[in-house]
C-alpha cells in the first residue's frame, strides 16, 4: 500500500512539473516558437477550435511565425483571433499570415521573469499539497493499524525525499527559463 501511495505521489508531482513546463511555453522569450499560439482559439463553422487545427504554424525566421491556413477563407478569422488574444501580436495577412514578434525590452523581460517565478511557485505549492495529502493517507493507514509507526515514519521520510527532488526540478527549470528570458 505504501509503495502505491509513493508511486501515486510521484505521478501527481510529475504532472505538476509538466503543467509548469507548459505554462513556461507560453512565456515569450523573444524568439519565434509555434507554441506561443497554442491557446489561440479561432471560430470555425460555428465553434471555437485551436488555431493549430485550422492552420500550419511554422517559424519563418527567429522573430517571425508563418501561419498557413488549411482553407483560404480562414485568413481573416485567424488574423482577428490573434489580434484579440492577449499576446500583443499584430499579424500581417495576405495568402499566408506572418506574425512578427516584437523585440523584448528590459522591462518586458523582467515582467516575463515575474510570470515565470509565479508559475514555479504555483508548481511548488501543488507539489507540497500533494505531499500533505499523501502524508495524511499514510497517517490514516497507521491509525487503522494497517501499518506500524516505524513504517509511517519511513514512508514520511521517503515522501519528503520525493518532494525535495521535484522542488529541485522546479528550481532548475525556473533558472533555465530565467536565463533564456534574459538572453538578448
UniProtKB/TrEMBL annotation:
<keyword id="KW-0648">Protein biosynthesis</keyword>
<dbReference type="InterPro" id="IPR002661">
    <property type="entry name" value="Ribosome_recyc_fac"/>
</dbReference>
<keyword id="KW-0175">Coiled coil</keyword>
<dbReference type="InterPro" id="IPR036191">
    <property type="entry name" value="RRF_sf"/>
</dbReference>
<dbReference type="GO" id="GO:0005829">
    <property type="term" value="C:cytosol"/>
</dbReference>
<dbReference type="InterPro" id="IPR023584">
    <property type="entry name" value="Ribosome_recyc_fac_dom"/>
</dbReference>
<feature type="domain" description="Ribosome recycling factor">
    <location>
        <begin position="21"/>
        <end position="182"/>
    </location>
</feature>
<feature type="coiled-coil region">
    <location>
        <begin position="131"/>
        <end position="158"/>
    </location>
</feature>
<protein>
    <recommendedName>
        <fullName>Ribosome-recycling factor</fullName>
    </recommendedName>
</protein>
<dbReference type="GO" id="GO:0002184">
    <property type="term" value="P:cytoplasmic translational termination"/>
</dbReference>
<dbReference type="GO" id="GO:0043023">
    <property type="term" value="F:ribosomal large subunit binding"/>
</dbReference>
<comment type="similarity">
    <text>Belongs to the RRF family.</text>
</comment>
<dbReference type="Pfam" id="PF01765">
    <property type="entry name" value="RRF"/>
</dbReference>
<keyword id="KW-0963">Cytoplasm</keyword>
<comment type="function">
    <text>Responsible for the release of ribosomes from messenger RNA at the termination of protein biosynthesis. May increase the efficiency of translation by recycling ribosomes from one round of translation to another.</text>
</comment>
Amino acid at each position: 500500500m505504501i509503495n502505491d501511495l509513493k508511486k501515486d505521489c510521484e505521478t501527481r508531482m510529475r504532472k505538476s512539473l509538466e503543467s509548469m513546463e507548459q505554462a513556461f511555453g507560453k512565456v515569450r522569450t523573444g524568439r519565434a516558437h509555434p507554441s506561443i499560439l497554442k491557446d489561440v482559439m479561432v471560430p470555425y463553422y460555428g465553434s471555437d477550435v485551436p488555431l493549430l487545427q485550422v492552420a500550419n504554424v511554422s517559424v519563418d525566421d527567429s522573430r517571425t511565425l508563418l501561419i498557413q491556413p488549411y482553407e483560404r477563407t480562414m485568413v481573416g478569422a485567424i488574423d482577428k483571433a490573434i489580434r484579440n488574444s492577449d499576446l500583443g501580436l499584430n499579424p500581417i495577412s495576405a495568402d499566408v499570415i506572418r506574425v512578427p514578434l516584437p523585440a523584448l525590452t528590459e522591462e518586458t523581460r523582467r515582467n516575463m521573469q515575474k510570470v515565470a517565478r509565479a508559475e514555479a511557485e504555483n508548481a511548488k505549492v501543488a507539489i507540497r499539497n500533494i505531499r500533505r495529502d499523501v502524508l495524511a493517507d499514510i497517517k490514516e493507514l497507521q491509525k487503522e493499524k494497517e501499518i506500524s509507526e516505524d513504517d509511517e515514519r519511513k514512508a514520511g521520510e521517503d515522501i519528503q525525499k520525493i518532494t525535495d527532488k521535484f522542488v529541485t526540478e522546479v528550481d532548475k527549470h525556473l533558472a533555465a527559463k530565467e536565463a533564456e528570458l534574459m538572453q538578448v
